[in-house]
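Worked example 4.2. Below are the chains of a multi-component assembly; read each line carefully before continuing.
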Amino acid sequence: MKAHTEHLMFQTKDRVEFINITPQVKEAVRRSGVQEGLVLVNAMHITASVYVNDAEPGLIQDFQDWLKSLVDVNKDYRHNLTGEDNAYAHLMRTLMGREAVVAVTGGKLDFGPWEQIYYAEFDGRRKKRVLVKILGE
Amino acid sequence: MKAHTEHLMFQTKDRVEFINITPQVKEAVRRSGVQEGLVLVNAMHITASVYVNDAEPGLIQDFQDWLKSLVDVNKDYRHNLTGEDNAYAHLMRTLMGREAVVAVTGGKLDFGPWEQIYYAEFDGRRKKRVLVKILGE
Amino acid sequence: MKAHTEHLMFQTKDRVEFINITPQVKEAVRRSGVQEGLVLVNAMHITASVYVNDAEPGLIQDFQDWLKSLVDVNKDYRHNLTGEDNAYAHLMRTLMGREAVVAVTGGKLDFGPWEQIYYAEFDGRRKKRVLVKILGE
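Applying the procedure described above to all three chains together yields the following structure tokens:
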């Protein structure tokens, strides 16, 4: 059995920003040498997401608009009484998800035609990490 | 370590349709010969979901009604400017999730009494695939 | 390859209650002896969630308020025609998620600074189980 671990670092310019991280995950799979296995990709911070969807800029804007329709950014959240102002980011991250688990088959991500792995930042402008863990052989 | 991969194919008659795929996943686990491990089951298309919940027809209708309360099917989404008309399906799939990871214990799905694996199609009437990847020994 | 399985049991006093289960998962990882691998933690009941987020009481109340804004607790759901009164719990569990998959690196949960594993009960006051499955070596 092989296990391979990488921690990717991101620091976005905007507070909310979506980044296609498929190339970095593919490269981690290549480096792992795993031919058959599973890859876990997860945000290590609780105001950010990893999700799988389309690399289409219009859809990414639709996601952001839709999140604002389900999460009131300006509400007086209890969490913000702690001095934080990012309760909305915890909620948006919950909708988009913490992690993706992806199969590795024949040494490659076993993906459908449009699947892309995204990092979604909801409280950026500081260093945040994403974990890539590959298990297999 | 054993790895076993199957790609299931679905073509629904309706655009939105939920299918219980537990029997197919159980059969894949049996074929894999894995006694202790993990199964990943994921939609390979980004307008469909795999989720775990109840096989109760009323609840499935409740899910579909609820998704319509959180996703405006008729909105002028930016994604639809590309010629698509399925932005709503990308959003609904995000709420229901892309994947389920299930334990295999003693050669069987390690499930609670009501857990069932569903494929939720939001933009059907064409061929779509679901990946079943089993890792263990 | 090692596989280790534990079933945790919970019976909450309130119908809706969130419990930090990170200590139990850490202890299961220690008992497994796995140094490099993956942990699956999932609710075995379909009206409860396992999710990763902050151990901050204000945020936990924010989560519960927010879920009520997206799921009408008092609606006449079709599922409730079966004699149940917990359709809302199936929907809330869907928003918060069924499972978390976490990496084990160097014998420990490979977590960011604020990541904590929670069990979210939406229809408690009876015995419910959570599965912890560890795969690795």
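Take a moment to check your reading of the output against the notes. Residues 33 and 107 of chain C are 7 Å apart (CA to CA). Chain C touches chain B at residues 1, 3, 5, 38, 40, 42-46, 70-71, 77-82, 87, 90-91, 93-95, 97-99, 101, 129, 131, 133, 135 (CB under 8 Å).
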